[in-house]
Amino acid sequence: MLTSVGDDHMGSFLVESLDKEGCDTRAIKVDSERLIAIVLLGIKDHETFPLMFYRENCADMTLREEDIDESFMLLLPMRRLALTFSAYYRVSIWWSALKKSS
């Protein structure tokens, strides 16, 4: 797993949950200056589910190429690469992760 989480309760919860599920969390960067991003799902009625996004200056949006440990990426037995984190909106991060995984 390659991402960044805040040094907060939600960040700790996420990393611990991923660990329990067997995910390799060694490449998750913990950012002591920013919080983790959160999306809350509200339930108004049977057809309305408003979403509330808390994404201002969040940890995963600050992931940089320098945060990707090439030696770690080369050791991964990857057959698939799924890019789903908001940090990958920046092409440079996406490309860096892809280059270092091959």
Automatic annotation (TrEMBL):
Organism name: Pseudomonas asuensis
Keywords for this protein: ATP-binding, Kinase, Nucleotide-binding, Transferase
Lineage top rank: taxon: Bacteria
This protein's record includes keyword Transferase: yes
Keyword Transferase (UniProt): yes
Protein name: Carbohydrate kinase PfkB domain-containing protein
